[in-house]
């Protein structure tokens, strides 16, 4: 989606591998396989197993094979009270005084954010398990939805983060291709809700060279868009990003302004809010998506979005801005900023409430006109938008990612 270098991590990958977590497991029964383990199996109730971070995925699969169900995962700290033996591991263990917080797929808190688990020098190699077209017939360009199997590694992420991809091969100077970042389009649990996949929404970059007149295709986007299902060794780095995270407040109002593939993080939000049902997150607020696209066939995830809007009318509002088909109040093309003008009274009423968050994601060209619109509409209401925006940013209620 956009080029960047990976942000510096607060701690090294090696540090993660030494951290210990407690799995509380139910449903394990004594049998030939479990008798060979080095921890006791209860005939009823739950069993607690201590697992190094580096072996978490493998231990999850092993527990599943044994018929068990993980009911909770917690970091092993000096407050932990457990008599469970440690699961077999070749990793060195650390003492119970470890105070690192959990990085498991649980309700996110600021200190739980996974960053740079994998880096360019040591990438995770994913496998493409799904690649299909999102643009309907008659639409503009090509956009693909890709899903990758990440079950063999330690890659974890949160809604609103990005993942880095380095395409294979070298550039014209004989150097490896540069990293490209793509907003993650799936929830932390993946499209299959099994914590084993990650999904991206990728538009194939295509433009005309002004000097030669020839069509030029983006290196990384072309690589991804043309991946065959089953393709392996897709080099992935990250995750990165804290700007676009979803607030933990289940009563929040989330206003989302998107153009094109900027829908990716918002798809993740909406899937977490409405499609997935978890005990640790029950969204009861309002989510409002204003989605800018050129033509109706370019409405990405159209069927699923409209199904959510129909099923949750009190909690999800869906507004399109279709530039080549709809007209604004002045008779011009309908853009996202046109909808902001149209609904300015409602939007500004929402923004003045402390639980309202404003998100923007898409091509960088969307930001100036939208910011100008907010400035003008705020002035009509006696508000200085620059000051108001700065305060929203300070309160962590304004989130912008453009590329």
Question: What does this entry show, briefly?
Answer:
It holds the Pfam family CpcD. With about 400 residues, the chain is an alpha+beta fold.
Fold topology:
Layout: E1 2-3, H1 13-18, E2 20-26, E3 46-52, H2 56-65, E4 69-75, E5 124-133, E6 143-149, E7 162-165, E8 180-183, E9 197-203, E10 206-208, E11 215-217, H3 219-225, E12 234-240, E13 253-259, H4 263-275, E14 286-293, H5 302-311, E15 316-322, H6 336-342, H7 344-351, E16 356-362, H8 367-380, H9 385-394, E17 398-402
Parallel strand pairs: 13-14, 13-16, 14-15, 16-17
Antiparallel strand pairs: 1-8, 2-3, 2-4, 5-6, 5-12, 6-9, 7-8, 7-12, 10-11
Helix pairs in contact: 6-8
Biased composition (Polar residues): 78-105
Binding site for NADP(+): 183, 203, 261, 323-324, 333, 362-363, 401
Domain FAD-binding FR-type: 121-246
Q: Features of this protein?
A:
403 residues, alpha+beta, Dna Ligase, domain 1, Elongation Factor Tu (Ef-tu), domain 3, Rossmann fold, 3 domains, seven-stranded antiparallel β-sheet, five-stranded parallel β-sheet, 9 helices, 17 strands, 25% strand, globular, disordered N terminus
Strand order of the largest sheet: 1-8-7-12-5-6-9
Helicity level: 10-25%
What does the main sheet amount to? 7 strands, antiparallel
Unreliably modeled segments: 3-18, 29-44, 78-109
Textual characterization of the structure:
The structure is a single chain. The strands form four sheets. The chain has a seven-stranded antiparallel beta sheet. The protein has a five-stranded parallel beta sheet with strand order 15-14-13-16-17, with helices on both faces. Strands 3-2-4 form a three-stranded antiparallel beta sheet, with helices on one face. It folds into three domains: 19-99, 2-Layer Sandwich (Dna Ligase, domain 1), CATH 3.30.1490; 116-240, Elongation Factor Tu (Ef-tu), domain 3, CATH 2.40.30; 253-402, Nucleotide-binding domain of ferredoxin-NADP reductase (FNR) module (Rossmann fold), CATH 3.40.50.80. Helix 6 runs parallel beside helix 8. The N and C termini lie close together (7 Å). The relative contact order is 0.11. By secondary structure, it is an alpha+beta fold. The protein has helices at residues 13-18, 56-65, 219-225, 263-275, 302-311, 336-342, 344-351, 367-380, 385-394, and strands at 2-3, 20-26, 46-52, 69-75, 124-133, 143-149, 162-165, 180-183, 197-203, 206-208, 215-217, 234-240, 253-259, 286-293, 316-322, 356-362, 398-402. InterPro entries: CpcD-like_dom, FAD-bd_FR_type, Flavoprot_Pyr_Nucl_cyt_Rdtase, FNR, FNR_nucleotide-bd, FNR_plant_Cyanobacteria, OxRdtase_FAD/NAD-bd, Riboflavin_synthase-like_b-brl. It is found in: Cellular thylakoid membrane. NADP(+) binds at residues 183, 203, 261, 323-324, 333, 362-363, 401.
């Amino acid at each position: 989606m956009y080029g960047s270098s990976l942000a510096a991590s607060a701690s090294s990958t090696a540090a993660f591998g030494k951290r210990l977590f407690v799995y509380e497991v139910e449903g394990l029964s004594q049998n030939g396989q479990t008798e060979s383990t080095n921890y006791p199996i209860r005939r009823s109730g739950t069993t607690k197993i201590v697992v190094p971070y580096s072996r978490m995925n493998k231990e999850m699969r092993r527990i599943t094979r044994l018929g068990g169900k993980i009911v909770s995962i917690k970091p092993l700290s000096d407050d932990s009270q457990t008599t469970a033996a440690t699961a077999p591991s070749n990793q060195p263990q650390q003492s119970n005084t470890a105070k690192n917080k959990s990085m498991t797929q649980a309700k996110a808190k600021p200190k739980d954010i996974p960053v740079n688990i994998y880096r360019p020098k040591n990438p995770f190699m994913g496998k493409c398990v799904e690649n299909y077209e999102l643009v309907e017939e008659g639409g503009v360009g090509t956009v693909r939805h890709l899903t990758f199997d990440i079950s063999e590694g330690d890659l974890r992420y949160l809604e609103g983060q990005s993942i880095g991809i380095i395409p294979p091969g070298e550039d014209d100077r004989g150097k490896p291709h540069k990293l490209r970042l793509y907003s993650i389009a799936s929830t932390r649990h993946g499209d299959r809700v099994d914590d084993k996949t990650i999904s991206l929404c990728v538009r194939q970059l295509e433009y005309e060279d002004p000097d030669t007149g020839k069509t030029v295709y983006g290196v990384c986007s072309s690589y991804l868009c043309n991946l065959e299902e089953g393709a392996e060794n897709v080099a992935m780095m990250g995750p990165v990003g804290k700007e676009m995270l979803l607030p933990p407040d289940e009563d929040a109002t989330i206003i989302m302004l998107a153009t094109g593939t900027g829908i990716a993080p918002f798809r993740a939000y909406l899937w977490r809010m409405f499609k997935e049902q978890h005990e640790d997150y029950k969204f009861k607020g309002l989510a409002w998506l204003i989605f800018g696209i050129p033509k109706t066939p370019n409405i990405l995830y159209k069927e699923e979005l409209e199904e959510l809007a129909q099923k949750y009318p009190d909690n999800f509002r869906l507004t399109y801005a279709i530039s080549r088909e709809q007209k604004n109040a002045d008779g011009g093309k309908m853009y996202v900023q046109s909808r902001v003008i149209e609904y300015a009274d409602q939007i500004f009423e929402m923004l003045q409430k402390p639980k309202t968050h404003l998100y923007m994601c898409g091509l960088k060209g969307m930001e100036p006109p939208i910011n100008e619109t907010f400035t003008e509409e705020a002035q009509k209401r006696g508000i200085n938008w620059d000051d108001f925006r700065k305060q929203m940013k300070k309160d962590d209620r304004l989130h912008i990612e453009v590329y």
